[in-house]
Design a protein that fits this description.
- There is one protein chain.
- This protein has about 350 residues and is an alpha+beta fold.
- The chain has 10 helices and 16 strands.
- Helix content is about 30%, strand content about 25%.
Length: about 350
Amino acid sequence: MNSPQEFRRLFAAANRLRASDAAGALATIVRTAGSTYRRPGTSMLVGADGSVTCPLAGGCPQHDLVLRARRTIEADVPEIARYDRDAGFDVLLEAGCGGELEVLIEPLSRDQDFAFLDAIATLHERRARGFMATIFCRNGTVLSPRPQRLLAGDGVAWQDIGDPSLCERVAEIGGDLRGERAAARRLAVGRASMEVLFESLRPVHRLVIFGANEGAVALARVAASLGWSCVVADPSPDRAADAMDGVDVVAATPETIRRSIAFDRDTSVAAMTHNLERDVRLLQALAGVPLAYLGVIGSRERVALIRARLPVAMDLHAPAGLDIGSETPEEIALAVAAEIIACSHARTAGSLAASALPIHP
């Protein structure tokens, strides 16, 4: 499934379809080869009128995918769209991208067609990690009348797989693969060959900014624009009251922050207080807390003083942010947000032009 941030938009659009009793189609990339705009597990929602939420392609096969999706809506049966040499429709290669796509297109016309989306939303609400397995082909033929799915996470489970033994096997494999990139696998089930897309699911990234000042507000705005969940925490939070809609403002000191905010491994923290003592106390309070990222802004001299005061070694990004020559609060905010993104994808944040790694993580 899409990133948690994108899923919010896709789920909202699906709910609008459902509320209006209108049909749609979900197009999901199940396999790729070479260079492609998006990777397996990414989905696009298409309405009967051709409206699109979360496009799958930067222009290469996008138009054809929408046409196929509208055809799927009319026929009310799923199909597999292949864009490769064997299919004779390798538009990505023709456009110079050099990639191939295999896309599952399924209709959303019945209440039960939306049930797995509800289950994903519940997982996100609980800030739980999990996985989803989609059985989309049997012996090379797309599963009809609908793909079958299993979704599991901490305290959340949903499935519409009719075969209990197949369900159990898929659940076992999905549990082992949790946290890995989305990928399709072929499973031998008796005399049948089943094709299953396994996807990891995680909650929306949350950023906690400790400090209420111009720089904190700038970073909160960048975080909100990225679709992150954002919290500004400070002993005097009124100074950040104008942060923007969608940003939570919490009154908290370093000593109370762990009681005020629930931290998890999908949460990043940026200390932006400009107060040495307060930053030290905050880091001491967060020692041992599993986080996606922990950063402190400031000069190298200031950071050295902070590190010398910490009782234990911490995975600390300080000074926080990428080295892009930032000066203004907005530029500093961009540098910090970019470093958080790089860390979340285990990338070094170097120039793409100087890297031989795949563009997509």
